[in-house]
Amino acid sequence: MSFLKMINEENATGKLKEIYDKLLGGEGERLANLLKSQSLNPEILESHLKLYKSIMQGKSGLSRQEREMIAVVVAAVNNCHYCLVHHGAALQQLVDEDDKLLFKDLAKAYQKPNQPEQEKQKQLASLTLREKAILDYARKLTVSPANIIKSDIDKLNDIGLNDKDIHDITQVVSYCNYENRIAQGLGVELEER
């Protein structure tokens, strides 16, 4: 499950039990291993949950679908299988029936940086100009954050994104990289379900 000890739902006590009880919706519900991997420090887990809700579900000029698309791209670039599966599943719930393979196309297009441009464009054909610009920025910020320059921001402004939108994109990318590092750094494995 993880390189480190994780406290399961049935063994939680005190503050951790309070957090788990808030998260569990009903009988038989299980928590994601990524959350349980942080069970040794309930305060950090609680802060992580607040950050997740604010960045991924809070009020924003970005749709939930756009945020999950960013999460899929970041996980693909980082080769984080755990987060790719989780955010891929979330994205699938948000898209139309015609777009059910979108997360696989995103993963393929952004996981292989040296693939022919024609192949990448085919995989991304269903994306809007806005989505492509957001995801290209997400990839660059993940791969080479020191190389972000003003013209990268200008490109986003040019397609109609305002400063708050760009700030929110940067927050989502940064949060997803944080999440990937937890999953990979602690050896978090996918749940059996």
TrEMBL record:
InterPro entries, A to Z: AhpD-like, AhpD_core, CMD-like, Uncharacterised_peroxidase-rel
Gene3D superfamilies linked to this entry: AhpD-like (1.20.1290.10)
Keyword Oxidoreductase assigned: yes
MF (Gene Ontology): peroxiredoxin activity
SUPFAM superfamilies: AhpD-like
Domain Carboxymuconolactone decarboxylase-like: 42-96
Keywords, in A-Z order: Oxidoreductase, Peroxidase
Pfam families associated with the record: CMD
NCBIfam families according to UniProt: ahpD_dom, peroxid_rel
Stated name of the protein: Peroxidase-related enzyme
Organism annotation: Halonatronomonas betaini
